[in-house]
């Protein structure tokens, strides 16, 4: 088959700028072949190269005594004691999910699970953070239904419990939904697998599903030459097969037990290209591939197509040749492909042969290490105007509460998480719903807590405080179940980085995130950047999703009790009544003005330590965030099936979103003990009301719990299902 | 006492079921779907939840044709005990060991939540630890749990007291609210809810334990 000639149109359709193409010519010393051009475009696109974000990502704190492996591998690894570790990451699948919600979301889940088990960890928990356009937008219902079904369809079949996540709606996501998938796995610290190849002449083995044309270069579809030669166009969204993924996971973990694996890498974005280059580069070796040996699902596939295919459920491995028979037997057992497709070589070359013909011959280290890196111009986000006294609204407390819980943003999300298997594996100690999910570490007394958080309104108004707040809220959610926060993964979703204002949001948010993870000792160990989330020039709200993991050590009780009749309601932390950018303003008054609440990281640490250190007295706890005291009190009451009375009646006290606060329900003896402890710790602790009866009474206003509960439980489905 | 848990390539509750059997005191072995025989001396076979062979066709249809299922059917025909949970129930109906079929949920969505089950009979090795009429909380997690059988079969199940559990508030459209049924000799139970997910304190409920404990007592004394 004749390969297309390299023209300026072809270069442009590969997303390469003229300057980037000049750099390719410089590296190659000749015009690249068609396949080589495809490989460069795959390695140098924003998704794979982080060319706009790398400079700023380097500033994030990534180290700590608990960190075994920080960013750069498939997922981050954190020590949880007793020779065990938790392996986790969060990754976006935004654009595919907007085009094809079911498969886009499903393959997003598949990709993140693969990242985790590639490192030798069995996935034990999943979460997903979803952002959709306004409920009334014509695409929203279809996207919500498709994405939720896709997440469930993949994860339920694979067999990993979903323990948490977020679902939000805002018009800024009308043309660009966000699907951020998180997965965590469990491994023994002495059985972790990395991607760096070692040894010369070692077989490179292809594992898993066959390669098809799915996902091959959306960028190249535009070129006429390509249209003339391709048999048929395929959608650029890949199709997921969770049954194959499940088998691939089992086979991979079993294979690792044989000792045959020298290094291993999953095939994600830009499939065979990225995985082979990564393994060679990290090991300081070259790689030679014979493409005719690649298991193929379709006929007459070209080198270009095979190198750029994003078919799912595939892995690449460097094999210890002495154990080939054992390794092959594992894959035969699981009815998966196992094919030796190449070898490691001493020279710094990425050599691609197809039926003996050289299709690409590139300097591997340069290809991996010379991706462009941009210091994009940026402007700081202008300081937001704080609310003046005249801007502060007043509302009847129950009306305000009803306004929140009837909105799909703050209504109960049962409709979503009941479509996910939350109890498979038999170790779920706390399902999604309120705050962090909890999973027992199988066969031990330890538990891991998981949460994902961000308040995009805050980040837009004030990127630095908003970045801090996302981390602080994650810290509080982990703390509220009695877990010690360990580490963080960040999924940074922003608009077009070529716009200085957008880049300014990115820079500001990373500054805040960096400060917070340093102060709260929860370093970033993995993450993902998704830029260009724009439609018709309209960017999304800046959405740096924070996924965080905490540990409840053996012998420690998790805090998972429910409020009961007779409990006192105690508020930990200082209430200033900050209503700027609050949920109340957004949902009830349709206003997005004011500044984000300030985050005092010392207060966060102090109050968080107080909760954990006093778990003998704290059995029921939730953090305060969106909707402030009023929503937190209602949520505790709703979960416990008991009424609540809150004494305050003024809007800022009830709905203000000051940070570093928790609401506790406890008996009088516990309250007394906590008062003493708070005095000693310098923590503000106030009695704000009590639980009991069957009504929700706030200030002078009240409503039956059953009525509010019905609104809370039905509004989500009524609005978007 | 010996239990064997079948492992299909897409089983994902095999470990959970094995743990529940072990906690009840069974000696458990895992049996691969390509094997054509059960281990010697097995008292009960567990067919676990999951997606046996992906279930892209009718759930359990391919699994029913697997080598191990032939052995499971022979075991049941010989009067051996068997417990099929969720996908395992689907598999047992596909093999014909139990009557009826599991259709897509009436609401067309996957449902995962804890539901109230009514114990319809205590007259079986699986339900002897309960009283008929007890209401127990057991998690469900399925897309295709809508039990269906023709009217004669349903009448027969009811007449022979072979409905083991019914839903207190039918979540999936199952005919006659049926959540679990027994074989004619009462030694095979198929049920959509997961008793192994309500089997220790950490699960937030232990209402499922009796399924395994009663079984252990009875198998041990049989």
Automatic annotation (TrEMBL), chain A:
Domain of life: Bacteria
Entry's transmembrane regions: none
Phosphoribosylformylglycinamidine synthase linker domain sequence ranges: 13-51
Name of the top EC class for this enzyme: ligase
Keywords, comma-separated and alphabetical: ATP-binding, Cytoplasm, Ligase, Magnesium, Metal-binding, Nucleotide-binding, Purine biosynthesis
Residues binding Mg(2+) 2, per UniProt: 115, 266
Catalytic reaction(s) noted: N(2)-formyl-N(1)-(5-phospho-beta-D-ribosyl)glycinamide + L-glutamine + ATP + H2O = 2-formamido-N(1)-(5-O-phospho-beta-D-ribosyl)acetamidine + L-glutamate + ADP + phosphate + H(+)
EC number(s) per entry: 6.3.5.3
GO molecular function: ATP binding; magnesium ion binding; phosphoribosylformylglycinamidine synthase activity
Function: Part of the phosphoribosylformylglycinamidine synthase complex involved in the purines biosynthetic pathway. Catalyzes the ATP-dependent conversion of formylglycinamide ribonucleotide (FGAR) and glutamine to yield formylglycinamidine ribonucleotide (FGAM) and glutamate. The FGAM synthase complex is composed of three subunits. PurQ produces an ammonia molecule by converting glutamine to glutamate. PurL transfers the ammonia molecule to FGAR to form FGAM in an ATP-dependent manner.
Subunit structure comment from the entry: Monomer. Part of the FGAM synthase complex composed of 1 PurL, 1 PurQ and 2 PurS subunits.
Family: Belongs to the FGAMS family.
Protein's UniProt name: Phosphoribosylformylglycinamidine synthase subunit PurL
Organism: Parasedimentitalea huanghaiensis
Gene: purL
Automatic annotation (TrEMBL), chain B:
Catalysis: reaction(s): N(2)-formyl-N(1)-(5-phospho-beta-D-ribosyl)glycinamide + L-glutamine + ATP + H2O = 2-formamido-N(1)-(5-O-phospho-beta-D-ribosyl)acetamidine + L-glutamate + ADP + phosphate + H(+); L-glutamine + H2O = L-glutamate + NH4(+)
Main location: cytoplasm
Compartmental location: Cytoplasm
GO terms (BP aspect): 'de novo' IMP biosynthetic process
GO MF, one example: glutaminase activity
Superkingdom of origin: Bacteria
SMART domains: GATase_5
Pathway in which the depicted protein is active: Purine metabolism; IMP biosynthesis via de novo pathway; 5-amino-1-(5-phospho-D-ribosyl)imidazole from N(2)-formyl-N(1)-(5-phospho-D-ribosyl)glycinamide: step 1/2
Pfam families: GATase_5
A cellular-component GO term for this protein: cytoplasm
Keywords per UniProt: ATP-binding, Cytoplasm, Glutamine amidotransferase, Hydrolase, Ligase, Nucleotide-binding, Purine biosynthesis
CDD domains: GATase1_FGAR_AT
Catalytic residues as annotated in Swiss-Prot or TrEMBL: 86, 194, 196
EC number(s) reported in the record: 6.3.5.3, 3.5.1.2
NCBIfam families: FGAM_synth_I, PRK03619.1
Reported function: Part of the phosphoribosylformylglycinamidine synthase complex involved in the purines biosynthetic pathway. Catalyzes the ATP-dependent conversion of formylglycinamide ribonucleotide (FGAR) and glutamine to yield formylglycinamidine ribonucleotide (FGAM) and glutamate. The FGAM synthase complex is composed of three subunits. PurQ produces an ammonia molecule by converting glutamine to glutamate. PurL transfers the ammonia molecule to FGAR to form FGAM in an ATP-dependent manner.
Subunit comment: Part of the FGAM synthase complex composed of 1 PurL, 1 PurQ and 2 PurS subunits.
Protein name: Phosphoribosylformylglycinamidine synthase subunit PurQ
């Amino acid at each position: 088959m004749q390969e297309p000639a390299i023209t300026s149109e072809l270069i442009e359709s590969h997303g390469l700028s003229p300057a980037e193409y000049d750099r390719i010519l410089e590296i190659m010393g000749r015009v690249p072949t068609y396949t080589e051009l495809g490989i460069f475009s795959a390695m140098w696109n924003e998704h794979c190269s982080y060319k706009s974000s790398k400079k700023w990502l380097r500033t994030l704190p990534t180290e700590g005594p608990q960190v075994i492996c920080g960013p750069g591998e498939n997922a981050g690894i954190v020590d949880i004691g007793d020779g065990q570790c938790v392996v986790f990451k969060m990754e976006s699948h935004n654009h595919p999910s907007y085009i094809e919600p079911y498969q886009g979301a499903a393959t997003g889940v598949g990709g993140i699970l693969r990242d985790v088990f590639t490192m030798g960890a069995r996935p034990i928990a999943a979460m997903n953070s979803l952002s959709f356009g306004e409920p009334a937008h014509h695409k929203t219902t279809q996207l919500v239904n498709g994405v939720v079904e896709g997440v469930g369809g993949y994860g339920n079949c694979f067999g990993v419990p979903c323990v948490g996540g977020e679902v939000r709606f805002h018009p800024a996501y009308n043309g660009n939904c966000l699907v951020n998938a998180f997965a965590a796995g469990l491994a023994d610290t002495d059985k972790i697998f990395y991607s760096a190849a070692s040894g010369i002449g070692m077989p490179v083995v292809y594992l898993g599903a066959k390669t098809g044309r799915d996902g091959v270069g959306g960028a190249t579809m535009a070129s006429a030459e390509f249209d003339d030669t391709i048999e048929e166009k395929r959608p650029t969204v890949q199709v997921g097969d969770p049954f194959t993924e499940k088998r691939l996971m089992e086979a991979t973990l079993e294979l690792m037990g044989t000792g045959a694996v020298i290094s291993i890498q999953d095939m994600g974005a830009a499939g065979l290209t990225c995985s082979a280059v990564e393994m060679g580069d990290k090991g300081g070796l070259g790689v030679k591939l014979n493409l005719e040996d690649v298991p193929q699902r379709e006929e007459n596939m070209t080198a270009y197509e095979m190198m750029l295919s994003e078919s799912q459920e595939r892995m690449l491995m460097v094999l210890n040749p002495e154990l080939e028979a054992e390794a092959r037997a594992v894959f035969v057992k699981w009815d998966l492909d196992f094919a030796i497709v190449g070898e490691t070589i001493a020279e710094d070359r990425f050599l691609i042969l197809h039926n003996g013909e050289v299709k690409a011959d590139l300097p591997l280290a340069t290809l991996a290490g010379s991706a462009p890196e941009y210091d994009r111009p940026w402007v700081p986000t202008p300081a937001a105007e704080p609310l003046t006294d005249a801007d502060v609204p007043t509302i009847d407390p129950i009306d305000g509460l009803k306004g929140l819980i009837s909105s799909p943003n703050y209504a109960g999300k049962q409709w979503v998480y009941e479509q996910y298997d939350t109890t498979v594996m038999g170790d779920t100690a706390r399902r999604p719903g309120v705050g962090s999910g909890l999973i027992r570490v199988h066969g031990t007394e330890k538990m891991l807590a998981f949460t994902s958080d961000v308040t995009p309104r805050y980040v837009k108004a004030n990127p630095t405080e908003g970045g801090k707040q996302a981390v602080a809220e994650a810290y509080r959610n982990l703390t509220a179940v009695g877990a010690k926060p360990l580490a963080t993964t960040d999924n940074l979703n922003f608009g077009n980085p070529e716009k200085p204002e957008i880049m300014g949001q990115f820079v500001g948010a990373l500054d805040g995130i960096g400060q917070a993870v340093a102060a709260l000792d929860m370093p970033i160990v993995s993450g993902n950047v998704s830029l260009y989330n724009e439609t018709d020039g309209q960017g999304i709200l800046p959405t740096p999703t924070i996924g965080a993991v905490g540990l409840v050590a053996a012998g420690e009780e998790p805090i998972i009790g429910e409020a009961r009749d007779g409990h006192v309601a105690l508020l930990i932390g200082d209430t200033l009544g900050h209503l700027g950018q609050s949920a109340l303003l957004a949902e009830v008054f349709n206003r997005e003005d004011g500044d984000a609440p300030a985050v005092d990281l010392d207060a966060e640490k102090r109050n968080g330590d107080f909760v954990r250190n006093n778990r003998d007295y704290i059995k029921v706890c939730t953090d305060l965030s969106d909707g402030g005291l009023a929503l937190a009190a209602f949520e505790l009451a709703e979960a416990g099936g008991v009424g609540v009375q809150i004494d305050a009646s003024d809007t800022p006290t009830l709905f203000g979103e000051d940070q570093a606060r928790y609401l506790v329900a406890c008996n009088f003896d516990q309250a007394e003990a906590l008062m003493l402890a708070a005095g000693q710790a310098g923590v503000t602790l106030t009695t704000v009301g009590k639980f009991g009866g069957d009504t929700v009474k706030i200030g002078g206003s009240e409503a039956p719990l059953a009525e509010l509960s019905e609104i809370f439980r039905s509004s989500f489905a009524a609005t978007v299902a | 006492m010996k239990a064997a848990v079948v492992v299909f390539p897409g089983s994902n509750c095999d470990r959970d079921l094995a743990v529940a059997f072990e906690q009840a005191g069974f000696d458990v072995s895992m049996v691969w779907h390509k094997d054509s025989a059960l281990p010697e001396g097995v008292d009960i076979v567990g067919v676990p939840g999951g997606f046996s062979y992906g279930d892209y066709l009718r759930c359990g249809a391919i699994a029913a044709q697997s080598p191990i299922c032939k052995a499971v059917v022979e075991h049941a025909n010989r009067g051996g005990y068997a417990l099929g949970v969720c996908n395992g129930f689907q598999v047992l109906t596909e093999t014909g060991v139990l009557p009826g079929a599991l259709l897509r949920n009436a609401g067309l969505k996957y449902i995962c939540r804890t539901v109230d089950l009514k114990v319809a009979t205590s007259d079986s090795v699986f339900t002897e630890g309960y009283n008929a009429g007890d209401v127990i909380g057991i998690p469900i997690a399925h897309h295709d749990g809508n039990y269906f059988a023709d009217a004669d079969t349903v009448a027969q199940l009811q007449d022979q007291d072979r409905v083991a559990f019914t839903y207190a508030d039918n979540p999936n459209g199952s005919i006659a609210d049926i959540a679990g049924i027994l074989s004619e000799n009462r030694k095979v139970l198929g049920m959509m809810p997961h008793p192994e997910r309500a089997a220790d304190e950490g699960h937030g409920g232990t209402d499922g334990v009796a399924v395994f404990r009663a079984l252990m007592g009875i198998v041990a004394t049989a």
